[in-house]
Amino acid sequence: MSFILQKLLILTALSILSIVALPFIGMELISIDQLLTDSFHRDIFLTLRLPRVLTAFLAGGGLAVCGLVFQSLFRNPMADPYTLGIASGASFGAAAVILSGAAGAALLGVPATAIGALCGAGLSFTLVLAFSGVITASTAGRRAAASSPHTILLAGIAVSFFFSSLLMFLQYMSDMRESFHIVRWLMGGVDVFGYKPLLTMLPFVAVGLILITSNVTALDHFLTGDDVAQTRGVRVRLSRGLLLCAASVTVGGVVSVCGPICFVGMMVPHLCRGLFGASHKILLPACLMAGGVFLSVCDALARTVAAPAEIPVGVITALLGGPFLVWVSRSRRF
């Protein structure tokens, strides 16, 4: 058995262990005996703790896979779902729904905040393509320049700042209650009740993962550069657009339920690449599981370190992300 396969099996075991064990951890530990004999603790376990862990696992895995896609497309270990402004656009869409007072509404069973987040993610993705010239380029030379990762990356940074400014404008225009709601939501969190939020997020993450998996080989070729990838049969513009669209759908689905949770999409792929190598057929499931374990553990810390109060999990990931950025910047790995 290869060393890489052994590490994947260990990561799989850690994933199963986190899903099984973490629901017992909280402000008060729940024992197996309480779970089996006490209906009150059983209800807490099944309606609060288990859905929360599953939501954190799915959100963390989705964000980590999206970070892997961005880092591979742009050949930049610092890229994450915020790089292209997709998370900022999704946050703006959800915040606009909250400010409108329609946060409790739903369309065909999909919450209005999820619809707003997806619309915001789609709008930011479209703006990135438009600002980078991918949509409007006509000649072959302009198309090649427009589809370069550096051009799209710069357009994404501009779009991210644009939507961040709009978010500040929404907060300024809101009253105290709405402003607090928006600020608390922007901190990120997986404090869900029941399985509806998980089921809301699941289709978007599943569709995104299917599209990314179907183009996983192209991600290996993108690491060698666009020209080399094209000589190996990769339709560069189509594959890049499809992968970015898949990542946008996934991020939109996660943000609609959990809010913007930063640094997961940057830290986890970077660490997995050091552990599992550069093959995306291995990295994809590794990032999915590692991201799920990472965010689940962070959420367990968020609900225990300051008990009985809870810390938004986005605060925990941000506190870990700062030192990680310093470590990456001082390393010689990129």
Give the strand content: under 5%
Quote the distance from N terminus to C terminus: 30 Å
Strand order of the largest sheet: 1-2
* Tally of distinct domains: 1
Q: Provide the CATH top-level class.
A: Mainly Alpha
Query: What is the name of the CATH topology?
Result: ABC transporter involved in vitamin B12 uptake, BtuC
Name the poorly predicted regions.
Answer: 135-146
Summarize the main sheet: 2 strands, antiparallel
Q: What would you call the structural class?
A: mainly alpha
Rounded average pLDDT: 84
Describe it for me?
By secondary structure, the protein is mainly α. The chain has a single domain (3-296), classed as ABC transporter involved in vitamin B12 uptake, BtuC (Orthogonal Bundle). It contains 15 helices and 2 strands. It has helices at 3-21, 32-37, 39-74, 86-100, 112-131, 140-146, 149-173, 176-186, 196-214, 216-222, 226-231, 236-258, 264-276, 280-302, 313-330, and strands at residues 106-107, 110-111. A two-stranded antiparallel ribbon has the order 1-2. A hairpin with a 2-residue loop joins strand 1 (106-107) and strand 2 (110-111).
